[in-house]
Design brief:
two-stranded antiparallel ribbon, about 5% strand, 4 strands, mainly alpha, about 400 residues, globular
């Protein structure tokens, strides 16, 4: 008699914390918990080839149902969810929620600029890495697909325009993948759009203050703040290079210890030789099991940016059944870059909240409504389902 497979529990409602600076871990984990079930079932089936045929069919049906579920998700959440040539549901979910969070941070400032454009002229056309971006259309699926196609058609040209600190999947950490380079390039461009929107809004508020100077001066409000300057690109590369060197030095030291011990053991006998051999075996095991990428990942998680660890910027650990070291490194680096851009935008929004009386006086009080828009509010606005339709059948307790 074989033990039965116990289906893990999973949520069917999207997590909604109400944060204005959402992190993606809880959203990605929401899908990862489901994505892990088929591989667990396949392992169970391979280890129990003689189970009851009806029971086996039930489990195979569950695998098929989940596979169909993820195919449907890639359609429902298009263009944010992109099916890769290398299918990995967990990475696809990770990429999709990275896209959606970036979209949220684009949506609010663009809507603000639309309101401001009723009072002063706004140029909604910007250029990023030689790409012409129409901010009034950038949230449309067709516009995004058009830009992504331009990237795909000339992946090397656009990828090489990204600062080196943000370049991955070119072999440095073991992976070369043009498809992932393309996704990385699009993520970087969206982060640059958020940054451009913050800078443009900052400029527009300066113009509003100049246009309505008498009202502004009469209200005695806090001055337009300077945007925070910080060379994140250099900072993050320094962290990676330092950790990489520490890892390489560590493995070299182990190899040196091994070489010394092996030479010394040649002259030893009896218990001393056995003791030396035990140490040699342990060192060989340590060397074989040591991973430079894993070392970098674990240390990088704890590095702090303005008092917040990079792991916390992600929202915590994301449990996954497919572990790719370079993807984890890039995820942490991207979290630092995007969070800094989004945090700067949020700091500016905090100043906007302080000048409500000015906005009311010049007819822009509606801007305040946008400042209370949460991530889940945004998801509902753009039509993202707040729950998933996946009801797996109960399976028997015994065979």
């Amino acid at each position: 008699m074989t033990t039965t497979f116990q289906l893990p529990t999973f949520n069917t409602e999207l997590p909604c914390s109400g944060s204005l600076l959402p992190t993606k871990a809880e959203y990605v984990q929401f899908y990862n918990d489901i994505a892990a079930i088929p591989s667990q079932l396949k392992v169970y089936l391979s280890q129990n080839p003689d189970i009851d045929l009806d029971y086996k069919k039930q489990l195979e049906d569950i695998i098929e149902q989940i596979e169909e579920f993820f195919e449907l998700q890639s359609e429902i959440l298009s263009p944010w969810w992109t099916k890769g040539q290398i299918r990995d549901w967990q990475k696809e979910a990770n990429d999709a929620w990275t896209q959606l969070i970036a979209e949220f941070h684009m949506y609010v400032p663009i809507k603000m600029m639309e309101l401001i454009s009723k009072i002063i002229p706004v140029n909604f056309n910007i250029s990023i890495m030689g790409l012409s971006i129409d901010l009034l259309r950038i949230l449309e699926k067709e516009e995004q697909e058009s830009i992504k196609k331009q990237i795909t058609d000339e992946i090397d040209r656009f990828y090489n325009l990204i600062p080196e600190a943000y370049q991955y999947y070119k072999g440095e950490f073991g992976i070369i993948c043009n498809e992932w380079k393309g996704k990385l390039t699009w993520d970087y461009i969206k982060s640059e759009i958020v940054k451009a929107c913050t800078n443009l809004l900052h400029s527009l508020f300066g113009k509003l203050i100049d246009k309505f100077k008498d009202i502004w001066d009469a209200l005695g409000l806090p001055s337009l703040p300077a945007l925070l300057e910080f060379d994140l690109e250099t900072w993050i590369r320094e962290q990676i290079d330092t950790l990489k060197k520490q890892a390489e030095d560590y493995i070299k030291d182990l190899q040196k210890q091994l070489e010394t011990l092996e030479n010394d053991a040649k002259t030893l006998v009896g218990d001393l030789k056995k003791e030396a051999q035990d140490k040699i075996d342990q060192l060989k095991d340590d060397i074989q099991n040591f991973s430079v990428n894993s070392f970098i990942i674990e240390m990088l998680k704890e590095i702090q940016l303005f008092g917040v660890s990079l792991l916390d910027l992600l929202g915590g650990e994301i449990k996954t059944t497919v572990i790719v070291g370079e993807v984890q490194i890039e995820d942490l680096v991207r979290a630092a870059r995007d969070w800094f851009t989004q945090w700067q935008k949020e700091l500016f929004n905090q100043w906007i909240k302080k000048i409500k009386s000015f906005l009311d006086a010049i007819g822009l009080g509606a801007l305040m409504d946008l400042l209370t828009l949460t991530f889940c509010d945004f998801l509902k606005l753009i039509g993202v389902p707040m729950s998933i339709d996946l009801q797996l059948p109960e399976i028997p307790n015994g065979v």
